Amino acid sequence: MPEGPEVECTRLSLRRFEGKKIVKIELTKLSQKYKKYEGKQKIFDVFIGKTITEIERKGKFLIWNFDFSKVILNHLGMSGHWIISEGADVPTHIIHPKIKILFKNESKIAIFEDARNFGQFRIYDTYQDVINYLPIKKLGSDGLKVPFPQEAFAEKLKLKKNANKEIGRILLDQTLIAGIGNIYKSESLALAKINPLRLVKKLKPEEIERLGSSISIVLHKAVDSMGSSIQSFRTSTGEEGSAQKWHKVYAKAGFDCDSCGNEIIRIVQDKRSTFYCEKCQV
DNA sequence: CGCCTGCCCTGCAGGC
DNA sequence: TGCCTGCAGGGCAGGC
Ligand SMILES: [Zn+2]
Predict the structure, then answer these.
(1) Is residue A176 very low, low, confident or very high in pLDDT (cuts 50, 70, 90)?
(2) Which of the listed residues A138, A162, A194 is the one where a domain comes to its end?
(3) Residue A29 designated active-site
């Protein structure tokens, strides 16, 4: 799930807790099996009685701000998601709960479930510390920014480290454009009708602009198509339904291209899958 | 500093 | 039925 658009939708869901006071941030029993959470309950107890002021997003990161200096940097990894659930207990059908947050004057709890455990939920002493954290500091312009930052995008593509690479290999680089993940990488290239194997330096200016616009369209479409499920706060409960339906190429190897009927193929770039239509994408 | 390779984890589908 | 392999929407630490 979690690319920029999914993280943005998570943020929108979690906003209901802005202004709420923390009763407790509880590391689950299960979480104690893993080093990154083990023995850390105590340091999360400093949040007891504090109020969430704002939950913001930078790329695929969520930054939890409170009414005191400490900040929590949260990343969903591959499988992390927040579940907003009625009552004080974690429902039994949630298999991998790592964190549970209880709030004052709030009947619902927030549960961070993360099967593969690649997620992060880390405390920083100050907001500035988070901003100075290199992966945050180096993030490129956000792909959901309106208007899409075409100039910054084009400039970064001119950098030596990018110019000689295949375009399909660098779109995942969060320092280029923040928020693109492996699904929307393929989908953006498909919409732009650009072959993922094309070398960046061989892309014409109009193709780069088309790609930028396509990234913007694809990411926003993803947010919009998740909108209805957000309303009911069930974004993260496993029903991803609508978000997947409009995919043109991702995970469609062997199926026919909707546009030309040619077979969609899968290749591997930097150990990640890329899907595309050889006929439509030049 | 930048770049590259491992590594962190569980679950699922498909082949045997 | 079980066991094995490859694959999965991401990023980090450590070596050079
Ligand atoms: Zn096609």
Answers:
(1) very high
(2) A138
(3) no
Q: Give helix A182-192 / helix A205-231 axis angle, nearest 10°.
A: 130
DSSP per residue, A80-124: EEEEEEESSS--TT---EEEEEEETT-SEEEEEEESS---EEEEE
On the question of pLDDT at A133 being above 50, the answer is: yes
Predicted complex ipTM: 0.94
Whether the CB of A80 is less than 7 Å away from nucleic strand C comes out as: no
Strand C contacted by A59 CB (< 7 A) = yes
Mean model confidence pLDDT for chain A: 93
Domain span holding position A104: 4-138
What pTM was estimated for this model as a whole?
0.95
What is the per-residue pLDDT across A201-259, written as a single tens digit (0 to 9) for each?
Answer: 999 999 999 999 999 999 999 999 987 554 333 344 344 445 557 899 999 999 999 99
Domain boundary pick from A77, A107, A138 = A138
Considering only CA atoms, name the residue closest to the C1' of nucleotide B1: A134
Q: CA–C1' distance A120–B8 (Å)?
A: 12
Structure tokens at A140: 């490129």
How far, in Å, is the centroid of ligand 1 from the Cα of A7? 30
Return chain A residues 109..148 having CB < 7 Å to nucleic acid strand B: 115-118
Is A23 in the same domain as A55?
yes
The residue length of chain A stands at: 282
Q: Using the CA of A120, which nucleotide's C1' is the nearest one?
A: C11
